[in-house]
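Record filed here:
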Amino acid sequence: MKAKSAIPGNQGFTLIELLVVMLILGLLIGIVGPKLIGRSDDAKVSATRIQIESLVSALKMYKLDNGTYPSTEQGLEALVSPPQSGDVPKKWRKGGYLEKGKVPKDPWGNDYIYLFPGTHGDFDIVAYGADGVPGGEDYNKDIASWDSD
């Protein structure tokens, strides 16, 4: 006895129908794919801005507890472990000021540059962008704590 299909007249897809679907999917991937791939640099710039804002918040908490920001020499490491040189803070928060217990690197794998006192505010935090060197344009442009764009 031959098994009957649950839906009358449904015999499956023909080879031509499958080829048409594969062609359409290929075209979509070819058109949309490069546009999505090019967005990774934009995402890194956005992530850098978010990380800098997080570091700014942590530095403000540090100042609330200790009366001053860490020195340039103490650096951002003062947010995760008590400084042992310079103005040693007396009220350093147990556990530090950053959630993950380490200073993040920028999305390109470089260290953030920290200066206290800053030339643009109380302190400066800078990421040098994709090329990792000062200056540049587009994705190589520096991203700084005092920039709002």
User: Anything to note?
Assistant: The beta strands are 113-115, 124-127, 143-144. Residues 128 and 142 are 4 Å apart (CA to CA). Helices lie at 15-37, 40-66.
